[in-house]
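To whoever is on call:

I kicked off a structure prediction for a single chain this morning and the downstream step that reads the tokens threw a length-mismatch warning. I double-checked the sequence; it's 348 residues and nothing unusual in it as far as I can see. Pasting both halves so you can look.
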Amino acid sequence: MRFLIWGAGAIGGTMGAHLARAGHDVTMVDSAAEHIAAINRAGVRITGPIAEFVSQVAAFTPDALTGQWATIILATKAQHTDSATRALLPHLTADGCVISAQNGLNELAIASIVGAARTVGAFVNFGADYMEPGVIHYGGRGAVVVGEIDGRMTPRVDEIRDAWLDFDSRAISTSNIWGYLWGKEAYGAMLFATALTNESIADALAMSAYRDLYISLAREILAVAHARGVTPEAFDGFDPNAYVPTAAADAAARSLDDLVAFNRRSAKTHSGIWRDLAVRKRPTEVDAQLGIVVALGSEAGVPTPLTKRLVELIHDIENGVRAQSLDMLDILAARRPATAPHGYRVQR
């Protein structure tokens, strides 16, 4: 296939390099001029325990790009979705599509700009980090899923999945992409909570003192998904059925154990959220990823006080008002509701 990767960082760089190595026609776009210069000079280099290789690809800054593509993978940070989608629009063919390989529910914003018919959803849960210009660390495999946002199974989704098998042999297509995206929202809330500290993802999720906190966060997110008629999907140790208020008492603990085991297998020890806060010193995706859940919950009449407080605490760290520490989890836990939100069910 012929792909344009818009956002050549951790996710886009990893996928694009693998697709190019497999023989697909890949062009990369990124706003970081030094990253683009390094790729054009020496290729994009993938490092880590899974693969070590260099792919030669054409790379451009947005202002230097010309031409149109039928398949564009959008892999920017979630907060840049609107501006990036508007920038790539002239490069999208009339019958083409934009695939969101991002965190969050960005398909909603993309569809509002390019149209629902030209929007394809994707769920990626592998671990990767941008290390320096031209270099991406691929630390751990994870679920790779693609699907139409209206739930149809179409030839273009099958074609994309078949191409993505060259990146990960377990890639699948689905008729329920929103189920995966909302499942990632719940798991993502846990990752934001671990980023309040300097602990690794696995170590933070393993701490018994905060497990009720993680469970409450997941339940808030899943209650909003349920109110929107979404059936969340399981992936990589996260089982949405384990967090419903009617689940067995130890079900959520077993799911958290599975998430700990999944993250211990990855060379990526900390989330990209933590890295934004502690290393790159830049804003996170918290508004685009969790702030939207608070807004959608309000629309649906589902309270999300814990999620709202988590957004506030992440902003406090971004603004230098607070520092990352385990004490931040205690501050967040003080907002935990005494009862679970709604007695909803998640169907398999």
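Update from on-call: the warning came from a stale cache, not from the record. Cleared it. Sanity check on the structure: The longest helix spans residues 177-194.
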